[in-house]
Amino acid sequence: MFDSEHHWFYGAKRASAYATAERLQQELWWYKLSETHVSCVRAELPYLFQGYWQGHLFEVEFEPRKSLVCRSDAELPPVIVALTQSLRRGPSFRYQDQQDCNVFEWWGEGKEARWQAMQGQPVFKQLERLGSKR
Fold it and tell me: How far apart are CA 58 and CA 6, in angstroms?
């Protein structure tokens, strides 16, 4: 059963950023990424965590209940699938940034405004809207 009150992203009761990093790591382990290690890099909003999976670095930056951005220097479909399963929804956007990192963004409210702000910006290479168009 999904417990949104205590979920690392959706939870209304906010644990420390370090405890949240631990919860995220456990969630990724639950979704079969047992070789994952996650640590807190920035404990203020938006939180920034660094993770490693099979030797590949990825970053997760998020504001609880609002948005999440995952960056990686390599294609890491299992990490994206695990985050999608944990968040109970697919990413909103996909692109490559100026450092050629693969970036996926999940948005709730504010998704349309974010999409409009991204349009025509050269920093968003291969910008793609995913899932529902609305």
Answer: 24
Cα 7 from Cα 12, distance rounded (Å): 8
- pLDDT value at residue 134: 45
The DSSP line for 42-108 is E-SSSEEEEEEETTEEEEEEEETTTEEEEEESS--HHHHHHHHHHHTS--SEEEE-TT--EEEEEEB
CA angle in degrees (0–180, nearest 5) for 60-64-70 = 20
**Phi and psi torsions of 85, nearest 5°:** -65, -40
In 3D space, the residue among 14, 71, 75 whose CA is nearest the CA of residue 48 turns out to be: 71
Rounded CA-CA distance 95/103 in Å is 5
d(CA 82, CA 79): 5
Structure tokens at 70: 């995952």
Least confident of 6-15, 52-61, 113-122: 6-15
Higher pLDDT, 134 or 115: 115
